[in-house]
Amino acid sequence: MAEEEAAAKKALQAEVVAVKTRWGDEIKLTKAKPDAPSAPLPVSVTRLISRPAFASAYNVDELKVKLWIEALDVARLPVRVEASALVPLKLQERIAAHVLERWQQELRARGSGAGWMLEKILAWCEAAFVELLTLEPTFIEMYDGCDDNGMTIRRFTIAEPPEPKEEAEEEESEEESEEEEPQREFTEEEIEKMRQLRIKEAAEAEADRQWREERRREAEKLGEEGRQQGISKKEQQKQKEEKNKQGTRLRKQGAKSNKFDAEAAGKKANKKNGLLH
Question: Which intervals of the chain are annotated as region Disordered (predicted)?
């Protein structure tokens, strides 16, 4: 029994090392304290998945998926999932449930001999980025935006629509009914205005993100040029200014004559033929 448990721990450790090796800083690990009865369990493996290129039309920059393993017996499926992103809580819960369902299906199909399938599930989460964000279709709103090249494209924001307010029940006393305003449902016009406001806010946020991304790329480009030349930005600017000054300098007078002065050189003229000696 002890040997089987040791082998199971070793296999789990190998899977954890594999995902850490593949994704590096995207992976965060947690485990129980050494003095815990079931140490090192429970173990969690979290991957912070940045938005893939194929999902660039969606305004969600990253998705965090945390896989929990609470026991070593794979057959019992002692696993659970947490998911978080800048999306409504209801969608986060649906994403976690969807990933858990997929994980359990893989574990059942492959059997205990295939291990915990950590790497496969985390890779699938990235490939299913759009699928996970669109699990709740009523949260998706489309608007016209721009891509990183400035081209107009359809973009999508994820937001939970407002819930219609139920009509308030009649108060028993007239005094309470006078003090409290009765609640009402939003009209279609009001709902549309709120939807347009959310779209506007999403478009403004996307424009701000693109502006900051452009500034970041410009800063990186300047920094790279400086490193290639081995000089600082200040020195680059100084050289540029000096070069501009040199380019605008005008020649005010011609070159001085360099005619040979024989007398100054100490030569004397020959009286017979006029030659210098």
Answer: 159-277
